[in-house]
């Protein structure tokens, strides 16, 4: 596809993500046959200007636009679902401040490929018109905050929340007693903090008196759990939820996990429920009723048709308090050792077909899995190595690096 990738449209601000592009997206939203649009942006710089460009495009098509200001992606999806409207999140999720992007929702769900194609066709028809950046009326409804307050329960434990200096910072400070990385300045979003940098949270826990902590990403749809000694990823959190469901006789329907999920976790979850694997991308989790990716996207479709990090905090606090045990006592299994790293596409000397064949050959030889895939959001190749025998990981990394570099 020309614009939409794994998770919406994404690129460098003012190079690819421009006022012109957002104006075209705004006008193209008319093909979704819904004249109400709830739009917000995360805490990176230039978000409001991009929102205004999109809003002016949408209003030129006689659509009603509601400005949610700085708002997490799940918050925007909440209003999209509640009001059966279009939702737009201007965000680059877990990327650094110099990137931005667009995620589009309809009735609380990410739009499918068919609708993405319709939007792209309409965007390419549009001619760019000069426009004046007028003020867009703010939408001051606090129903999302009220929803989260109703979900919140008391817990005997002390915990801290790393907001990644992102879109959840303000609302998390209202909801929870203690937060860190919750003072965004437009350029510090995801910078050494948050769910993509969970070591920051672990280090904080080791230097302060807390039992555990959570790390969100820049737009608030991912969550990672940690204590002083270990990081618990999205697939680990899925296991804990399923364990709680089983112990409380809550019916477990179709469970789905990303193909990136850790084999050790998959094997443990199979003791509770059948599991299906899906491709990378949180929208693929909707193929099941409950699912997760290691990155922290977790969907419980019976409750919400999207992942929401702040809601997950309220649920996990309830579960952890129910068991009344230290976090590490709740995960009685061993993850396979893992290595995730990236290589710029410009350094790759092999074709996609060659890489696919090479990956298949490697996976026939190992107790674990190796995944080599093109990023859907950045100009890089992502490599994932997970092996039962830890000592072999860097041996295979060298084999992979040599091959991709044409050696």
Query: Care to count the β-strands?
Result: 18
Straight-line N-to-C gap: 32 Å
Let me know the average pLDDT: 94
* Overall helicity: 25-40%
What is the radius of gyration computed over CA atoms, rounded to a whole number of angstroms?
Answer: 21 Å
What's the number of helices? 12
Q: How would a crystallographer describe the biggest sheet?
A: 6 strands, mixed
Please mark out the parts with pLDDT under 50 across 5 or more consecutive residues, or reply none: none
Could you give a quick summary of the protein structure above?
With 407 residues, the protein is of the alpha/beta class.
Written account of the structure:
- The chain is α/β, with parallel strands linked by helices.
- The chain is 32% helix and 21% strand.
- It has twelve helices and 18 strands.
- The strands form four sheets. Strands 1, 2, 3, 4, 5 and 6 form a six-stranded mixed sheet that branches.
- Helix 1 runs parallel beside helix 2 (47-59) and helix 8 (234-247) runs parallel beside helix 9.
Could you list some keywords that capture this structure?
18 strands; single chain; globular; alpha/beta; 407 residues; 6-stranded mixed β-sheet; 12 helices; 5-stranded mixed β-sheet
């Amino acid at each position: 596809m020309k614009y939409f990738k794994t998770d919406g449209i994404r690129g460098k601000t003012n190079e690819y993500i421009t006022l012109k592009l957002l104006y075209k997206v705004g006008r193209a939203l008319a093909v979704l046959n819904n004249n109400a649009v709830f739009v917000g942006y995360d805490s990176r710089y230039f978000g409001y200007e991009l929102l205004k460009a999109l809003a002016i495009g949408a209003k030129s098509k006689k659509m009603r636009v509601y400005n949610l200001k700085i708002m997490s992606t799940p918050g925007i999806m909440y209003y999209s679902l509640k009001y059966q409207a279009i939702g737009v999140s201007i965000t680059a999720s877990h990327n650094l401040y110099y990137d931005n992007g667009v995620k589009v929702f309809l009735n609380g769900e990410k739009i499918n490929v068919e609708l993405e194609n319709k939007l792209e066709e309409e965007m390419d028809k549009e001619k760019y018109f000069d426009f004046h950046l007028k003020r867009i009326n703010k939408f001051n409804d606090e129903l999302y905050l009220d929803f989260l307050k109703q979900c919140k329960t008391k817990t005997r434990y002390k915990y801290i929340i790393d907001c990644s200096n992102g879109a959840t910072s303000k609302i998390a400070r209202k909801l929870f007693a203690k937060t860190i990385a919750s003072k965004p300045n437009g350029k510090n979003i995801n910078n050494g903090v948050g769910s993509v940098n969970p070591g920051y949270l672990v280090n904080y826990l080791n230097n302060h008196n807390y039992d555990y902590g959570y790390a969100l990403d820049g737009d608030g749809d991912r969550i990672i759990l940690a204590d002083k000694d270990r990081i618990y990823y999205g697939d680990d959190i899925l296991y804990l939820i399923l364990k709680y469901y089983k112990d409380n006789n809550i019916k477990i329907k179709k469970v789905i996990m990303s193909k990136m999920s850790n084999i050790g976790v998959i094997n443990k979850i199979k003791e509770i429920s059948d599991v299906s694997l899906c491709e990378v991308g949180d929208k693929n989790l909707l193929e099941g009723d409950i699912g997760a990716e290691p990155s922290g996207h977790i969907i419980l479709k019976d409750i919400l048709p999207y992942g929401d990090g702040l809601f997950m905090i309220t649920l996990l606090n309830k579960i952890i308090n129910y068991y009344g045990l230290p976090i590490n006592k709740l995960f009685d299994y061993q993850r396979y050792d893992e290595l995730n790293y990236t290589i710029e596409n410009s350094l790759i000397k092999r074709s996609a077909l060659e890489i696919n064949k090479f990956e298949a050959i490697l996976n026939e030889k190992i107790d674990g899995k190796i995944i080599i895939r093109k990023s859907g959001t950045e100009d890089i190749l992502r490599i994932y190595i997970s092996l039962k025998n830890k000592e072999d990981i860097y041996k295979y990394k060298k084999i992979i690096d040599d091959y991709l570099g044409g050696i």
